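Possible race condition, two jobs.
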Amino acid sequence: MDSTTTTTTADRVPFASPASASGAPYATEPQPYDGLLLAGFGGPEGQDDVIPFLRNVTRGRGIPDERLEEVAHHYRHFGGVSPINAQNRALKAALEAELARRGIDLPVYWGNRNWAPYLEDAVTEAAAQGSTRLLAFATSAYSSFSSCRQYREDFARVLTGTGLAETVTIDKIRQFFDHPGFVDAFVPGVLDALTQLREAGQTRVLFTTHSIPVDDARRSGPRELDLGDGGAYEAQHRAVAEAVMRRVAERDASLADVAWELVYQSRSGPASQPWLEPDICDRIGELPGEGVAAVAIVPVGFVSDHMEVMWDLDNEALEAAEAAGMRAIRTPTPGVDPVFVAGIVDLVEERIAAVPAADRPRATDLGPWFDVCRPACCENVRAGFKPAAAGVAP
């Protein structure tokens, strides 16, 4: 992908390594990083953690605990424990093993946005161990405020708040939505589900992701890219779904005509605010009237089995399918699939070596995405632009 943004000497990428400070879309000089920062969302690890965690997630919005408790019951159903921290521990271990297998001496530091271990702890630990040139991998594959820019703002906030802004730099690997390691991780699960549902009748593949406000979707990605009302967020998800189905058909030609669509889940905003639609459960309820007898539910928006997967899909969506009289299978997320883990490390090596954009692997025409986020990318409609690392200001 090309960007029409013109960089000048006045452009600056705050908190960046020398190889990325110019503001060019892609790094053109090799960069010797000395630490990999695994940045996660975080989650509670016990019943007493649930409300404090949800306060962190919604900080600044003035949401009373009574309303937070409406969401808390999802976590309380699982003993107050989100799966996300255990999954990030497993991912950290898998990344360390793959880096060691390739002979790459790069320690992995893990920090979260909303719960311990916090990003502040990870960055402080890295600096104390002499790792001051960090390359970040955030556990979200797509462009939007909450899935990309907010992590970049977290990096800036942490560096400023810890007093490490003058000694530690943080770059971020490119959005990996269309890297083959991510896309290919979904394919076996879709193949297996469609094979199991072959005798059920007409089957629809529902690729699902977290809904976001329409205004946020429109602002996702660089402003100079005309990607429609859903912005980069919707366009990237559609492109990945197409790539997955193309790979499925290449492995089993009899599945080439299976229909698919993109749906959304986990809406949390007020009814007066437009969010991306259709909702997965609403859509499931409509499909029998279109002759559909079975659905394969593919959580393409998620790297691992977040609470939104375990509750919103494994409970609510599967219950909606049962109520509609349809068979349904939810396919796996990438998790620590060796293909996915290897893909992350491929992206780390790509950035270290500053591989030319034309030589980078990609599974869609939208990639490879930018190393350095473009100016005014993924604006927060409610709060405007705050300082952010790994992108041209603002």
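Job #2 (started ~2 s after job #1):
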Amino acid sequence: MKYAICYDGPGRLRLRLGQHAFSEEEGWGIASLLRQKIGVERVRTCAQNGSILIYYGAEIAKENLLELVGKLRRADIPKVEPTGEEDVQAIDLRFQEKICSMVLRRVAEKLLLPVPLQICKTCLRAVPFLWHGLRSLLHGRMNVNVLDAAAIGASMLKRSFSSASSIMFLLSFSDILEDYTRKRTETALSASLAIQIDKVWLVTPEGDVQIPLSDVKAGDWLRIRTGTMIPIDGKVREGEAMVNEATMTGEPLAMRKAEGAMVYAGTLVEEGSVAVEVMAVNAQTRIQRIMDLIAASEELKASVQGKAERLADRIVPYHLLTAAAVFLLTRNTTKTMAILTVDYSCAIKLATPIAVISAMREAANHRMMVKGGRHLEAFGAADTIIFDKTGTLTEACPQVSQVIAFGDYERDEVLRTAACLEEHFPHSVARAIVRQAAEEGLFHEERHAEVKYVVAHG
């Protein structure tokens, strides 16, 4: 791939490959490939302008990253699912595109489209609104759809097609905001439960081999060790372990899993090492089915948002009665139209989700993820907050400060051997030892027999 360097700063590199150099799905694959390299902390891609933004640490040289991108071919890009951050980024981008498209299209129509064609387009756009209002009346419901239809219909009867068009534009804008809010909250929820594992250890006759999770299929055996989240549903075939199933059952105490027991994706091996035969992976896992169920049924709107929508429906009859009273008293259609078009209920429905979105975005800017308006409200009423320490109040990133060798052992040999053993365990202390060896250039081959872990004895 050919690229140009747009920004080159400490720990941050932005490359531009050109518009449409890769698709959105290929961008996810490129990001996944780069994240697998030691030292790459974060990658963001944008298919619209073909840019790749890379955040990296001291463990990898900038030249190595450039060489990797330069040698990348389209056939090398894996097909992967987007991460939670990439999902949110895609939703935000589509929302911005829809809003910009709506505004530009409206301005272009006003400036370029002849008036007769504008009237025809307004009449066609009004049909769905009028139908929804009529259907609500036929079902005995006096809701916002009726008020919308009344305002649009009255504007058109008065031949004020510009007013009717403006009302429909604002209503469409409100629908886009509501859809954006719903998708964003569902994505945040899914990301909080998602399995954030890229690679796993496959059990083979020649020994354990590390492979991408995307390559795992039913019937494979995976080695799951202490501190590792189980990424699949399966049955234990070898070993024993204490597994924390709090994500599935809410039970905080770990359960012993021996040969023949079932284990599920999203649970955590606290102690031990097991070989698990894969029964279900990705969309077929139980945790994924739970996520789908929550996404389909859970209403994450703030209660104030629900109250606003109910209030909007309740004031519709009073709104229509006010308009009728004004007409009876004044016989002035212009004043009556003013009552109908000043749609307070629409403003109530529109303002509330905007406030919730703004608050969630503000929280995200301070590195806090809010899963929905309901939780935002609960946070406002809280007087006590309980934190999970690791990764919340701490970085979960210890550093090796000193290596002490005893007897006839050399310091480098001790660190190399320790890293060789610890590379199989994703505990934060294990990662610190492996990282220190890599920083000092103490690269190692597999120099040991199979690593065995005894529950409660290490």
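The chain has a mean pLDDT of 80.
Logs attached separately.
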